[in-house]
Amino acid sequence: MIAKTFFGAEDLLATELEAIGALDIQKGTRAVEFTGDLAVMYKANLWCRTALRILKPVFSFPAANEAQLYDEVKKIDWSPYLEVHQTLAIDAVVNYSGLSHTKYISQKAKDAIADQFREKTGERPSVSLDDPDLRIHIHIYKDQASLSFDSSGESLHKRGYRDDTNEAPINESLAAGLILLSGWDRKSNFVDFMCGSGTILIEAALMARNIPPGIFRDGYAFEKWKDFDAGLWRQIVSDAKAQENKTTGFKITGIDRSVQTVHVAKQNVINAGVNDLVEVHQIPFVVYTPSPGQGTVIINPPYGERLVEENIRELYKNIGDYLKKKFGGYQAWILTSNREAAKSIGLHPSRKIQLYNGALECRFLKFELYSGSRKAKYADNE
Known about the structure:
Strand 7 and strand 8 form a beta hairpin. Helix 2 (about 40-45) packs across helix 7, helix 3 crosses helix 4 (about 100-120) and helix 5 (about 170-180) crosses helix 6 (about 200-210). This protein has 2 domains: about 1-150, VC0802-like (2-Layer Sandwich), CATH 3.30.2130.30; about 170-210 and about 240-380, Rossmann fold (3-Layer(aba) Sandwich), CATH 3.40.50.150. It contains 11 helices and 15 strands. It is of the alpha/beta class. Mean pLDDT is about 95; it is low at about 375-380. It starts with a strand and ends with a helix. The strands form 2 sheets. The protein has an 8-stranded mixed β-sheet.
């Protein structure tokens, strides 16, 4: 199988797959290959916080041109996978091939499947782009095609707990990846003082409670497959619910100055069932004083697309001043695509990780925040 993910999360996803029993794990770019049985495939969809979808490669064949693609797809006996009354959808990706038009490739493959059914039954399956019974992915690389079944359906980042969002919500899988990259121990205080619709807060709470991120979804594509094992799936879901950790002795806190955004965040927190663990405050972040001791801060501030240059620099300077003043003993992480504005934070990052937020190339910056002076901290350590 192949688990798709975002750039920079390959190591995280490999670790998640290993934890659920996957074997033969091989990391690629934005993807991790692995082997496993039906239970592993079901668990990968339910448990992998950084996965976007789980693909099951089924067939491989040469596809140097459209005629060969059509013929090879039509050679496959589709009756074990699809009934004539069911629906399908086909996505295509092409690299270094004479076939370059992905929509045309999808159309030719769909025609081959439909023509096979029509010749056998006199009818043909329909296409459903939104909710097909079988979603097929075709990847053509140097005239060799790999055909996979998508076991996930909707992208796995769509957890199901977000009813509403702010203007630019962070992808749930990326939010989970940020938390995993930060090394948060899941037992110390956690703060996002630019929390928006609450995604980072909720993902942190799900980790702390050991709640699988896929537990809220309406369904998965594999539930429509002809080999779906409903009993096995019920047992996996039941086992997952039994593993929830109810005890926590720390705070997960969100701050935002927008009344509407905080309302949305609170509703999403309730939807995720973690409102007893997550608190959200509608105040300017500079007036909030965190709990003393150690903890982790993760924020995804504006990058400057809707702010003039002077304002974005001032915002980042205020973030740095606030961190230095209020968060001694914490670790702070900031995701931003604006490298110039990041310089105004006034702190030296101890780590920089390249990531993408959508199409934007970003840096995930780590700042060590010491109580007292850094010089004194080093002297104490010596």
